[in-house]
Amino acid sequence: MSTFNINDLAARVGIPIIDRLPEVLHTDPEPTPTRTHRPGKNVDMIGQEKIRVQLAMLLQAAQKRGEQPPHILFHGPSGLGKTTLAEIVAAETGGKLVRTTASAVNSPFKIAKELAQLGDGDVIFIDEVHGLSKIAMELLYTAMEDGRIEVSSGKGDRTKSISVELKAFVLVAATTAPGKLDPAFRGRFGFVASLEYYSDEALGKIIARVATKKGLDLAEGAALSLGRRSRGTPRHALHLLERAAGYATVVADEGEDVVIDEEAVANSLALAGIDSLGLTPDDRRFLQTLCVDHMGGPVGLANIANSIGVDHPTVVGMIEPFLLRAGLIKRGSRGRMSTPAAYEHLGLKAPITLAWAV
């Protein structure tokens, strides 16, 4: 049996995986219907290589067999490209993309209406799909499997159920909480993929591409410097690029070319309280409280949330995920604990009585 090689497989499905910025990204492609910085084709996307290769194989195989692609579920943290991948599915299949959210179609009537309006080959993208009610999920997975929906009309003894045949469609669903999906609903997806955080280099390439599209002048090293502070997330990277561009524009002398260099990056992010690792003031206050006030822990969620004046969902959903991934904290049965890296980042000496050292 030959050894698996993703680069060879990627070449077979027409997706380049290379270290340098592809030449195509220096051009100004046709903008997508939503945001001009989103790639329109699989080949144009940066990052998520394994998922892109699998997706390309899936779509090309369906096209060659003359079949409709299976329904697709993407899950992972916000800002990693789930919406972009949905747009790519529509672009690659030639179908119209219909975008909505679970909150907008969270009733049988609303979701039935949305599905009935789809044309043959259309792609419907439902973001945060875990927000659907159980009855809405049941109606949706019937449509996914049988290509029809049951619509009830009337009341009491006069209630009638009408079966409505649907055009062939592809559902692309995205969620940040896959565990909240009904197992029967989750089982209807033919392709399920978990998105990964981006490397600093991939984020640098994304930043460079967007800067080119926006006509921004990036000095050498500035894109990678922004990428290192972007917490592994393209959406965050583009926000930081906007901050750096605004700073460089304001401090530039009249008539001088605006150049975003590493100094502009450092100063703009320092102004926002974002440090070299991408930590925000809330992140550092969390670490400072854990490392100093609680001697590295362990400490419970309620205790530390109250100490820093932040609600529980913000701590669990926004602060802790990056600190965990960066190896600055650990979570155990007894609560949150700091690591040696946390003390090092804060410029503090770790006590010898830390719980994790026992």
Element order: H for helix, E for strand: HHEHEHEHEEEHEHEHHEHHHHEEH
Ends distance: 46 Å
- Cross-sheet strand order for the largest sheet: 2-3-6-1-7
Overall pLDDT score: 82
Question: What proportion of the residues form beta strands (DSSP E)?
Answer: 5-15%
Largest sheet: 5 strands, parallel
Count, helices = 14
Shape: globular
Structural class label: alpha/beta
The CATH fourth-level homologous superfamily of the largest domain: P-loop containing nucleotide triphosphate hydrolases
Helix amount: 40-55%
The CATH topology of the largest domain comes to: Rossmann fold
How many individual β-strands? 11
Report on the architecture of this protein:
- The chain folds into three domains: 6-194, 3-Layer(aba) Sandwich (Rossmann fold); 200-271, Helicase, Ruva Protein, domain 3 (Orthogonal Bundle); 281-357, Winged helix-like DNA-binding domain superfamily/Winged helix DNA-binding domain (Arc Repressor Mutant, subunit A, Orthogonal Bundle).
- The radius of gyration is 24 Å and the shape is globular.
- The strands form four sheets. The protein has a five-stranded parallel sheet with strand order 2-3-6-1-7, with helices on one face. A two-stranded antiparallel sheet has the order 4-5.
- Mean pLDDT is 82; it is low at 18-40.
- With 358 residues, the protein is α/β, with parallel strands linked by helices.
- A hairpin with a 6-residue loop joins strand 4 and strand 5 (160-165).
- It contains 14 helices and eleven strands.
